[in-house]
Write a structure and sequence with these properties.
This protein is mostly beta strands. The chain is built from no helices and eleven strands.
């Protein structure tokens, strides 16, 4: 079993910044990729950024140059630094990992960007 707990969401004005954190516990190690997804009201859940076990990264086109994903393996934590936030970034942000073919999700953290 793997547990993921996100934190760091909130209300911010357009152009502002937030840093999300996701702490992983349970049967997980630094050998697994971790990702951030988001889901806006009425829309599907989409990938935002993924970081591999060797810290290789990929980003959705909509966040390239503005968001940075990173990980601290000693703390079993993955971060999402979000800058130059836009109202269209408003969503619930979820942490994700896949362990032995099983998807694990956190409870989500709300990010609201006001214009």
């Amino acid at each position: 079993q793997v547990q993921l707990v996100e934190s760091g969401g909130g209300l911010v004005q357009a152009g502002g910044s937030l840093r999300l954190s996701c702490v992983a516990s349970g049967s997980i190690s630094s050998a697994y990729a971790m990702g951030w997804y988001r889901q806006a009201p009425g829309k599907q859940r989409d990938v935002v950024a993924v970081i591999s076990s060797s810290s290789g990264t990929i980003y959705a086109d909509s966040v390239k140059g503005r968001f940075t994903i990173s990980r601290d393996n000693a703390k079993n934590t993955v971060y999402l630094q979000m800058t130059s936030l836009k109202p269209e970034d408003t969503a619930v942000y979820y942490c994700n990992t896949v362990v032995w073919g099983r998807n694990y999700w956190g409870q989500g953290t709300q990010v609201t960007v006001s214009s």
